[in-house]
Write a structure and sequence with these properties.
Structural class: mainly beta
CATH architecture of the largest domain: Beta Barrel
Largest sheet: 15 strands, antiparallel
Shape: elongated
Helix content: 10-25%
Distance between the termini: 61 Å
Number of helices: 6
Length: 470
Amino acid sequence: MQTGFVAGRHTAWIRCLGVVLLFAASAVQASGDASIWASPSANSYSVSAFTAKGATATHLQALQQQQQNSLQVTQFLGNGNALAMRYSQALQQRDIALGYTWKDATLSYMSGSGEDYAELGGQYTGVDPYLFHGGWKQQFDYDGFAVDYRVGSFGHLQYGQATMRSDGLLDRTARYMEWSNSRLFARATRFVRGGEAIGSGLDAGINFGNKRLAIQTMDLENDRSMQRIRLQLDGNRTRQYWFDIASHRNALYRENDDVRMMFTFKTMLGAKSLASYADENNRVGNPAASPDDDPEGSPDAAPAAKKRNPWIARGLLIGVGVAAAAGGSSSGSPVADRMLRFKTQSEAALGVLNGINPTSIRENREYGGWVFINPDASYASTTPKKGEATKVQLPPRSVVIPSGSRATASYHTHAAYDPRYDNENFSQRDLDNDKELGLDGYLATPAGQFKYHNVTTGEILVLGRVATGG
């Protein structure tokens, strides 16, 4: 069972209230799940096998959340050595990560490909992939690595980075440095687009008993940011609680600014015996959740190796999450990243025409462009193209509209007042062009009228006013 509420837009109003009953043949997500940011609806299954002497062990963990499935296998080889592999797959995307621990050092490598990175979140699970840009629908590949080193009783230091690549777009890279021990972790991340730093992130967490607390922030150029806090309480074998607070701000998409609070309660309904595969005490891959960090380890005991080597799995998980964050921080296009977004097509048209109409009147020349819909269902407009006194040639859509976005309307101005023309109305050529393209049309007139042509019905409406500069 899950229940929760959300309060948003900087008010205490409850925006949604829902109750969902979950029946499953597994235990409540094991508290040893590799990420505190995993979805509360996720289900985790794990099983371990040991040799007769306990010198080596094989640990397998499967995780299912939303549309993502992942499988991780860790082979403890004795003498503090271990080998791990993690595979994840979601709709139109997949990744694989490998890690090897030798005594105090761990090296991880990860790579993947897909078209949309909305589901593979790792440590950034739950962050809206379109929070900072309108998205892209284009094939991508990424790779990255992480290096972890145990520094005696001080804890562990880990450095990693991942780079996402797509044809026609700038590379997006995220680099991080982390310190962690059995109770605490702190991580700083830097986001880069095409060699230019565009922002930073901070993660920190603490584990105290059956409670876990974590904070995560992202701050990017153009006044875009995200902060969230999660408190997780592990009740018993069949019960967990989460309390989340999240704040989002985007100066380029004000309609999405909000503050949210969510309380989630999850319990297991049904036969308890069906949950025998969940290992609540196994916290591999999460130092902040590990019950004990054995600094010396035991070269002859697999359980001690499990305590000593959670960082082999942690490197795999963080690396995948950092790759997701690299894609979330930027679309790969500076123009698209800095583009104003709107909830509706008409708002996008009004925004651009309100800005360009005074210039059009002052220069006595027409300006025009396109309104388009982004992969996240927001709307934006292309930069106005300069025309002549009585016409403007719109730029090719394939050149000015971002990959994955689609034109839904055209817009243009009618320059300054001229008694020789009826420039307070759409011309017949304007209407014919809309019909030929199958796209709606918007017009800003010299008198400041904001007009709309519905190409489906043929109806022409005055939607409001635009600036004239007078």
